[in-house]
Amino acid sequence: MWNQRKFRQQHSAYIPTCKLPTEISVNSSEDQIPTFYVHGFRGGDYTTHEMVTSAQKFTQSPVFLRATVDWSSKIHYSGYWSTSKFPIIQLVFKDRWIPSGTIERWFNQILNDLYQRYHFKTYNAVGHSLGAVALVSFLINTYNKPLPKINHLALVAGPFDGVVAFGDLPNINPLSPEGKPAFMTPKYLWTYINRIKFPANAEVLNIYGNVNDSSNTDKYVSVSSARSIKYILKPQVQRFVEYNAVGTSGEHSQLHDDKSVLQVINKFIYNDEGD
């Protein structure tokens, strides 16, 4: 499975493979479970850098693959695919002002491309901020497509029911005991209406922050907005768990670098896979 000659005939971008020690490798790429790391609005490679680095240490993988979408809408691959059970893929968008729908479209193209090359059956994904929103929308919009199935999905600081000052304000949108928000943005309502299309086999980790300054926000996303996805997904998926980061660790741009948060993500994504 590691001979990529046939792939070079179909894809202009050749991706080298790094062969790792037998104890952390699989015999066929079809047995792999890659993990995709997706940043959000105004993000970049620095957003998921610590996530990727910590995942490399956790899985003992010295390499990862970066898929960069440039300003001319072309995908460039750098780094390596590996023979690890858990290849790591970092998505980077040069347009830092990228909206949710465009993130979703590029994730779809990159996932399809790598699926055609390596034929893995399942995958994991980690999304920060608008990247988390895009991943949820993608999984709903592709419910009937011939793609590999999502296994573990980690959502970090997702503005599922608005961003502070843009569809949301601190302490004005309380959640019911079941997690239902008092007010729903059009995007949230669409997600709720189409929730039945979200993969029931998925296991979801939702991480939200609170800087603990009485605003009940991570400075950019309210706790209510970030937690509102529970009302939609918990009844739908196989497993739904939450993690709350408080104080300095709970700031929107610190969540993707905080050591405790990274440990929670890695255990959720990789430890569960290995059990």
Write the layout of secondary structure elements.
Blueprint: H1 5-10, E1 17-18, E2 35-38, H2 49-59, E3 65-69, E4 75-79, E5 81-82, E6 88-93, H3 100-118, E7 122-128, H4 130-141, E8 149-156, E9 163-164, E10 167-168, H5 186-193, E11 203-210, H6 223-227, H7 229-233, E12 239-246, H8 259-274
Parallel strand pairs: 1-5, 2-6, 2-7, 3-6, 7-8, 8-11, 9-10, 11-12
Antiparallel strand pairs: 3-4
Helix pairs in contact: 2-8, 3-4
Tell me about this structure:
This protein is an alpha/beta fold and 275 residues long. It is 30% helix and 21% strand. It has helices at residues 5-10, 49-59, 100-118, 130-141, 186-193, 223-227, 229-233, 259-274, and strands spanning 17-18, 35-38, 65-69, 75-79, 81-82, 88-93, 122-128, 149-156, 163-164, 167-168, 203-210, 239-246. The strands form three sheets. Strands 4-3-6-2-7-8-11-12 form an eight-stranded mixed β-sheet, sandwiched between helices. Helix 2 packs across helix 8 (259-274). Residues 1-11 have low confidence and may be disordered.
Strand order of the largest sheet: 4-3-6-2-7-8-11-12
How many strands, which pairing sense, and closed or not: the largest β-sheet?
Answer: 8 strands, mixed
Q: How far is the first residue's CA from the last residue's CA?
A: 25 Å
What's the helix-strand series? HEEHEEEEHEHEEEHEHHEH
The 3D shape can be described as globular
Strand content: 15-25%
Count of individual beta strands: 12
DSSP helix fraction: 25-40%
Q: What structural category do the secondary elements indicate?
A: alpha/beta
Stretches where pLDDT is under 50 for at least 5 consecutive residues are 1-11
- Taking all residues together, what is the mean pLDDT? 94
Rg measurement, Å: 18 Å
Number of helices: 8
